[in-house]
Structure formats: structure tokens, C-alpha cells
Amino acid sequence: MRLQLSKIVDAEQLSAGDLVGDSMSRSPFRRIQRGALLLSIVFLVAVCGYHFLGEYDWIEAIWMVVVTISTVGYGERSSLDPTLQIFSVLVILLGMSAAAYTFGGLIQMMLEGEIERLLGVRRMSRDLQKLENHTIVCGFGRMGQRVVEELRSRNPNIVVLEKDPAVVGKIRGQQELYVVGDATEESVLRRVGVSKAKTLVAALPTDAENVFITLTARNLNASVQIVSRAEKLSTEIKLKQAGADRVVLPTVVGARQLVRMITRPTTADLIELVYESTFEDFELDEIHIQADSQLAGICVEDSLMHRKHRLLVVAVKKSDGSLIFNPDREYCFQADDIVILMGHSQDIARFRGQYAI
């Protein structure tokens, strides 16, 4: 699959010759490139012509070319050699044409905001090189947009990867970094720093593309967390075999929520409340207890989660993957435990601050 780059390229390749793509080949920047090259050729040929044909020294030859192309004029004798006069006419015509073409492109570039856009590309490319432990969202369709919205308040380091330049217009003006390219290409994933990324979300509409992205990303970074979308149940196994850590099937998730609303509406309301990003005062959070954490070895009762911090310990995931739901007060937290908490956002933040989590 061919890489389709539009106006976003990485800093290592950002130069005049690297603004590729059909739109960029017709851009004012490309016009300035061609005009500057033509003007340089005319200037060099004209200097050599005046030096050898008119027997001017090099400084005088340069002066002749400058005043001729600039139409400033000069007090040169009118009894020039006919060959030199014809040569001067050609220099004037070609030089003025090249200059008009070049400066016309510069004016067009300024009017269309190309300079500002190129400066933005450079800044974005520098930011991409600095990223570590960031989240890469492949695909900015309906699901990709929703993922970015949900992650924006939790993870500021987000890079959106989208191959359709028309869709990129929806990203511009937002805070996220973005790259126009095919996420199934290994070179594009390298460009967005998949080797240093913490999480990759494969949210493209087709299962085949998501499988290919997952396989490629896993080969480039063995430790990156990969969450992928799947439309078919049979694709879930393939995605996990390719290296996906989590697989989300929108059809299955939606069906379960519909059934929950019918059979257990109050439970469905609670789950919706937890998932609703606009309700920022209440959330379901998780804490990973490291070996050097102050919580390691402390029991639920001694942590004062409920009495002091008004937090509910929903479950604890052990290092072996087993889950303990609603652990009793005598349970002692161990290293590598993942504690799932429910409560108000400020209470969770206060608890994290007390135990330096």
C-alpha cells in the first residue's frame, strides 16, 4: 500500500523537496522552488555571457545582470556589439519572467497562508520527535473521533494518524498532533514514534487493516499496549494472535448495553454515569501498586479508603490475572496489584496524592 502524504511530514524529511503529494506539487511553495531555480540559472548564464561575450570582469558582469533584470537601467553606451545587445534582451526577458514567476508564487503563498502552515508543520514535527509514552490513534472516523475526545482530558500526548486528507480538516484547530499517512505502512508508524509509544488504538473501519496495523506495531514495539476495533467475532482471535492486548467489538458492546437497559435499567444508568465523560465529578479509576508503593502491604481497612477518602474498592486484579471482587477489610494489597476504585474525582486525586501514586 502506497504511502499517501499530504501536508504533514516529519522533521527529518522536512525540506523543499519533501513536500510531496499532488496538492503540494501544485502549491505556491513548489512554484517558488521552480522559479528560484530558473532565476538562478538565468543569473549564472547571464554573468558568464557578459564576462566572455562583452569582456567584462566578473564584478562588472554581475552588476550588468542585476541592473538589467531589475530594470533599474544603466548608463551603458548604445554602441554595444549586436550579439551582446541580443544577449541583453534575452537576459531581460528571461530574468524578468523568472523573477515575476518566483515573486508571484511568494505573494500567492503569503495570501494562502502557506508560510504559516509550513511553520506549523515544522513545529508539529519537532513535537513528534519529543514524544514518549504517548497514545497513537489510527483512524479519525466516528470511533476515532470519540476516542480522542475521551482521551483528551486524561492523556494530552495524543497523535492522530489518518490517511484521508479530507478528514484531516476535522483535526486542524484542535490540540492533537496529527500525521497524514497510511497506518498500515511501517514507515508511517515509525514516523509517529510507535517504538516509544505507550498505547496504540487501531480504529480503522475494516478488520483487515486493523489486523495489519496490530501485527506491524507489535513487531516494532513489543511492549506497546494495542487496543483494536473489530467488526466480526472471528476477527477477535486473529487480532489477539497478531498481538492485540484488547479487542473491542462495537456491535457486541452495543447489544449488551441495550439488553442491560431492558433488563437492568438502573444498573445501565450507573454504568452510563461512570462512562459519561461530561460527568467529571464521579469516575471509576484504577491504581497500579508498585513494589515501592506506600500501599504495598497495607490492608484495606488501614488504608482508610472508605472512612477517610469516601472511596469504594470495587475489585483487585492480582498479578496472575485473577480478580477479587469487593475485597474484605482484612485484604492486604500486594505489589503489582491493580486496585479498581469508584468515587468522586477529587477524592481519588486526594488519595493518590497521599500515597504518591
List the helices and strands and how they pair.
Blueprint: H1 22-25, H2 28-53, H3 58-69, H4 82-111, H5 114-130, E1 135-138, H6 142-152, E2 158-162, H7 165-168, E3 177-180, H8 186-191, E4 199-202, H9 207-220, E5 225-229, H10 233-242, E6 246-248, H11 250-263, H12 265-275, E7 282-288, H13 300-303, E8 312-317, E9 323-325, E10 338-344, H14 345-354
Parallel strand pairs: 1-2, 1-4, 2-3, 4-5, 5-6
Antiparallel strand pairs: 7-10, 8-9, 8-10
Description:
This protein has 357 residues and is of the alpha/beta class. It folds into 3 domains: 15-114, Orthogonal Bundle (Helix Hairpins), CATH 1.10.287; 131-248, Rossmann fold (3-Layer(aba) Sandwich); 281-354, 2-Layer Sandwich (Alpha-Beta Plaits). Helices cover 48% and strands 13% of the residues. It is built from 14 helices and 10 strands. The chain has helices at 22-25, 28-53, 58-69, 82-111, 114-130, 142-152, 165-168, 186-191, 207-220, 233-242, 250-263, 265-275, 300-303, 345-354, and strands spanning 135-138, 158-162, 177-180, 199-202, 225-229, 246-248, 282-288, 312-317, 323-325, 338-344. A 6-stranded parallel β-sheet has the order 3-2-1-4-5-6, with helices on both faces. The protein has a 4-stranded antiparallel β-sheet with strand order 7-10-8-9. Helix 6 (142-152) links the parallel strand 1 and strand 2. Helix 2 (28-53) crosses helix 3 (58-69), helix 9 packs parallel to helix 10 and helix 11 packs across helix 12 (265-275). The chain is elongated and about 105 Å long.
